[in-house]
# Entry
Amino acid sequence: MAEWDFTTDFVSIGSGGGGLASALAVNSRGYEALVLEKRELVGGSTAMSGGVLWIPNNPLMVAEGVEDSREDAMAYFEDVVGDVGPASSYERREAYINRGPEMVSFLQGLGLTFRRCEGYSDYYPDAKGGKARGRSIEGVVFDGHRLGPWFEKLQQSFLFEMSGLAAYTGDAAKLVNFNRSPKALAVSARTWARTKAAFARGQAPLTSGWSFIGQMLYVALNKEIPVWTNSAARDIIIEDGKAAGVVVQRDGKEVRVLARRGVLISSGGFSHNTEMRKRYLDPAATTDKFSFSNPGDTGEMIELAMSLGAATDLMDEVVWNPCKEINDFAVFESDRQRPGSIYVDAAGQRFVNEASSYLEVCKAQLERNHTVKAVPAWVIFDDDFRRRYAFGKGRPGVIPKAWFESGDYKKADTIDELAAMCGIDPAGLRATLDQFNPNAKRGVDPEFHTGEGAYNQYLGDPKWKPNNCLAPIEKGPFYASAVYPGDVGTCGGILADENARVLKPSGEAIPHLYATGNATASVMGRKYLGAGASIGNSSVFGYLAGLDASKS
Ligand SMILES: Cc1cc2nc3c(=O)[nH]c(=O)nc-3n(C[C@H](O)[C@H](O)[C@H](O)COP(=O)(O)OP(=O)(O)OC[C@H]3O[C@@H](n4cnc5c(N)ncnc54)[C@H](O)[C@@H]3O)c2cc1C
# Structure
């Protein structure tokens, strides 16, 4: 029998969406929970993220009369995800669809506030059961100072770091198009005014993942749920075949924690573990240079679970996101959603609907790279495009000089010169544009269907007609930048059942051991169903793990 330094009912390894949701669920049932976080900051990739949760038929949709149903959500899963095995079994889908709204109500009951991301379409809106108005929600602005000294320990959101604004992720498409429609300008002005007003009142206005984690942390602290930072789980102790506790390295000392009712692995994926990337991912994506996930995404808990006999699946799956490099920094590539840009491979050929979801674009890029060099691919646009849009934080029409000086952006008077600078076949690129331009003028893309469907249109230029994702590329000078398959985390891992119980290859559960989020093979399988598919997956199965462990 092991000796214990600390006793609790439930340990959540990781302080992201799944970790905190599970601890709140356990606490609501009258049991003790402990949240472990190996970093000095709380919140993981969830706090850094857009903070959007994709929850079909959620209470905000119901309250606002936005049509959805369990049947439609299940049809959507079936049509888009298809059969990918037990990670997205019928039971797991059913649990996600049926209990997701319950989790949102539960969090609302604890005082969390959310808003609906109106019009943030499902990523496959034309599939059976797809919804053009979207099923995504995000946290409402929350004053970080309410966390007291814990505010300093909260992982900052990427959106705030980039913009300095208390911006909603659901408004991001309007913010980047602030000069393209009165509505987009109004949303941008409101965002700016909200930020200024909050700062003037001495508040720290948190939005996106910062708000979601900030709000959950606030409740957890008020309920006196211990959250240990600088506390890495090193081992899970199994006694009599059950997960009995966790060995923690806390501030450099070993602490043995007894978990009477269960242990949840909610430690994220392995996007910063080069060895695991090499073992499981496409050889063209083994560097984490283009990964935006939090530095704690190192996969050791997945490996530990494997050593304890857990089954894994979908280990090659990643939430891909196209990236470029500017002055040695990886940044998200977003030119692709605007009319007048295309992605091409080294042969000068397009290979994807550039306005489709980030996951689909990178998957097509990696697939293409197996036959024609497409890592990097190149985003190509012309001078009309340059005049219309803002780049980075700059004014519309201004591409910073430094980007050309560093070689990250290329500029040439002719297509042939541009192709030569990028190592693209000039004849291939010319042929692509000869075919693309007349169609783009008419607003059609017979090959890839760019601009068709609500998701494409949501991200396009609101002012551009006839197709807000398509415009010809014909007026020099011409521009290009390299595009890499970046990511916001891996999403294959431990196999868990509909109650988030960790499964062995035999299908039998390991008693008292749970897993959720990017540490697991996602219920979304090999697809990303809509904005918030990751945090939805992590939080819902974290919540269900907490409830299952709290059953008497
Ligand atoms: C910029 C950006 C924007 C994004 N936007 C969205 C979005 O809007 N919606 C969406 O659904 N997804 C989004 N994502 C993806 C999403 O954030 C992640 O997929 C999701 O948050 C993963 O949740 P998780 O609970 O599995 O892990 P995390 O939130 O990463 O939490 C895991 C935590 O566990 C800790 N940990 C790891 N190992 C240990 C250990 N041994 N002991 C103790 N602690 C440990 C880590 O340090 C980390 O803090 C975005 C990601 C990024 C980077």
